[in-house]
Amino acid sequence: MMRRAIIGGTGVYGIKGPSVSQKVSTPFGEVTVDIVTSEGTEIVFLPRHGKDHSVPPHLINYRANMAALKQLEVTYVYATGAVGSCNTSYAPGDVVLLTDFLDFTKMRISTFHDGKTGVKHTDMSDPYCSNLRRLLMEKAGQAGIPFAGEAVYVCTEGPRFETAAEIKMYQAMSGDVVGMTNVPEVVLAKELGMCYAAAGIITNWCTGIKKEAIAMHDIKASMDKNRQNLTGLFLAVLTGKLDQNHCSCASAVMEL
Ligand code: HPA
Questions:
Q1: Residue 126 has pLDDT above 90, yes or no
Q2: Which domains, ranges and CATH numbers included, belong to the chain?
Q3: Which of 13, 95, 135, 136 stands the most exposed, by the fewest C-beta atoms within 10 Å?
Q4: What sign results for the dihedral spanned by CA atoms 186, 187, 189, 194?
C-alpha cells in the first residue's frame, strides 16, 4: 500500500475528517500521528512541531518523524511551512510553492545514511517532487486558489530570526523565502524514496526588508487565511490516483 501524508507546520494542526490518533515507535523515538479519513482515503497527518506545537524547529526529531511515515508505508507527502519573504514580489499572506533549497542549518542530523550500510548519496536535482508540484498546481488552477509563484527556500538553524546582513546574503544567493524546518525534512523524504512537496505560507517580511521589526500578529493572520485552502488542495491531490512513474523520487539514492 502506498499511503499519503500531510505534514503540518506552524499554524496547521489538523485536517478535516474523522480521525484516530496513533503512536508510532521508530528507532529514533516515538511519534504521534492522526489517521484521518478523507473521501474514503486514509491520510496520515503529522504535526511537525508536535500536537501542542511544543517542539522548536532546531529540536524537532526529523528522523523520527520521517521514519514513522515510512513505517506507515507513506509514499506521498505534502507539507506546509511558515516562512518569511526576502523577495519583494512575495508578500505576507501569499503562498508559494517550494522548488529548491539552500541549507544553512548547523546542528541537525540530516541523513539516515550512517555508513553502516555502505556509502550512499542522494540526488537533489528535484528535491521537491516535480510530479506532486504539477498535480498541486493543476488543482489550484481548477479551484481558483492562486499560488504567488515558485520559491527557493533558505533553511536557517533558528530559533532566532536572521540578521539584516544574513538576509542580504540569502537574497544575493537566490533565496526567496526563509524558514527553519524544511531541511532536513525534504532530504530525509528523498532518502526514503518518497515523493515530497511543500508550500510556504508567508507570514512576515524577513529582517531588514521593511523598516519595521518582524511582527508576530502578521503570522497568525496569514495562517488563518491560508490553512483551509491549502490543506483542501493537498487532499484534492492525495485522495486521487498517484504513481511514481513521472518523477525520479523512488530512485534518488545512489551507492558508489
Ligand atoms: N525567518 C525564519 N523563519 C521564519 C520566518 C523568518 O522570517 N518567518 C517564519 N518562519
A1: yes
A2: 3-255 (3.40.50.1580)
A3: 13
A4: positive
